[in-house]
Write a structure and sequence with these properties.
This protein has three domains: 2-169, Thiamin diphosphate (ThDP)-binding fold, Pyr/PP domains (Rossmann fold, 3-Layer(aba) Sandwich), CATH 3.40.50.970; 187-348, Rossmann fold (3-Layer(aba) Sandwich), CATH 3.40.50; 361-553, Rossmann fold. It is an alpha/beta fold and 554 residues long. Helix 1 (4-15) crosses helix 2 and helix 9 (214-227) runs parallel beside helix 11. It is built from 21 helices and 20 strands.
Length: 554
Amino acid sequence: MQNGGQVLVKSLLALGATKAFGVPGESYLAVLDALHDTQGQLDFVLCRNEGGAAFMAAAWGKLTGTPGICMVTRGPGATNASIGVHTAMQDSAPMILFVGQVGSDMKGREAFQEVDYRAVFGTMAKWAVEIDQVDRIPEILARAWTVATTGRPGPVVIALPEDMLTSLTDAVPLVAPARVAEAAADAGAVAEARAMLGQAKRPLILMGGSNWTDAGRCALQGFAEASDIPVLAAFRFQDQFDNFSPVFAGEAGVGMLAHVKAMIREADVILAVNVRFGEMTTDGYTLLSVPVPAQKLIHVHGSDREIGKIYQPALGIHAGPNGFAAALSPVRGDWAGWRAAGRAAYEASFDAPVQPSPVDMVAAMAHLRGLLPEDVILTNGAGNFTVWPNKFFKFGPKARLLAPQSGAMGYGVPAAIAAKVAHPDRTVVCFAGDGDFQMNCQELGTAMQAGAQPIILIVNNGIYGTIRAHQERNYPARVSGTTMVNPDFVALARAYGYHAERVALTAEFPAAFERALNSKTGAVLDLDISPEAITPRQTLSQMRAQAQAAKDKA
């Protein structure tokens, strides 16, 4: 006989879980006790806030394709963690949130920290369930893992009444996860899709979502290049397609570039693979008419619930992205100029004007594009600063981007920590606005304790920039509630054991970033982009020449 906590932990091990992010609570002490025996196999990453822990689990799911595990206590712990659940859902990222619950004998009385989790998470998660029989723990976990990873991946919430974890049971823990094959594309539907593309004058591929394999991405790229069809990535999924490919034309997301909007509007056939058609990818649902687009839409998705949810396709195909991509063979048409124009506009978008701030982020990003390794992982939260990692970096086939489709501030730092936990030897760089950074800067303590310290670039302008921009447009000359007085970020980061320094000028950036790369304990660089302190700008070549001269002198 074992208690429920032991069965739960042994089942998670069998399913393949290796890390659990969380904040401890008395409501699930039996689980914490069981984790004492799994160190080195299934480790508990001790976080500082449940919101940060849930972001880490969501990012883990997006990065690895396996459910990110989060464990929090009842009531306030669960509500803090809800931001990560919402983010995982909008990101289509597999995640399982375990939440402590009051004992079964106290339910329905508004006991201390009692919450109805089915009601709270029912519309936020892919599935919300409460275990009410200890013998069913393996069954519920097996289903949760499958729900989180199949179709359109997403978060599952499991409430754990305290007595379910302490009660004894002879239930056998799981021994392995279920193998669920991707939904396969019908051969006739694939042939029809190819015929529609072959008859097009301006075909376009729009791709995104989770559940891609390396083979699937490679197959889609091979098809697009052989057919010479331009490819756009859905909002914050540009890391799923090689940006150096001659067919890649950009990202359909927030701050959408004019040529991307034009390509979606002017396309006559759009092959949308693994895309859920969110607001950002459609520019507020304006680029395609609802419910029947003017463009012929071929919508391919692993979940039948996504097909026809917003747009009625000319052809809907219920199929996983990898098998569908592998089933495609090249098509031919007279659209080389259409593809070339899209690629040229994408390349031209990197030639941005000099920025009127002490640290010119255009120059900084040009430096990073030439410096960062091919398997770098970039992360960001939400704010105007996200334009830099999202629009001014090229993601090769090994690089990854962890960025929230939910637009959640505070995601970038926890996501970077999760990425460093998953891949200790890879370079992980987080971009954070000063407001965004302060949403979860306490998780620097988590990184210090876990030995998972990324590089964090604080793009510091002293304001909530996105809100200020809307404020100045709608209520000119009436600034209110958007100016921040910030702490000494360098001193704060050093207190957490990070290498940290203030970067006051563009010319200082290359050397400062080199020191960050060489730091064994991560780094925080506080970049001054305040618009008030205008200084003479430098070209990238001047910046690099100065940095090299300083290095040679040293």
